[in-house]
Amino acid sequence: MSGKPFAARPPGAEAWVQDQGDRPGARPSPFTARLTIDVTPACRGRIKIAAFARGQTVADMVRALLDREFPEERA
Prior knowledge:
It contains 2 helices and no strands. With 75 residues, the protein is mainly α. It has a domain at 40-70.
């Protein structure tokens, strides 16, 4: 195996994120990144039930939650 890394890291944090101005609840743009978290089976069940009751997908509901908790900072 060569000493060449699989992928090079971008020089700054902003290079990891591409701002597309997506509105909450909108379908993700092609410039999305996957986020994986570990939750208990019970928590996963509660999330799925809440999403179903709201007529949303789990992904859309969690995206909206993250947008509320971590709003984009305006300069």
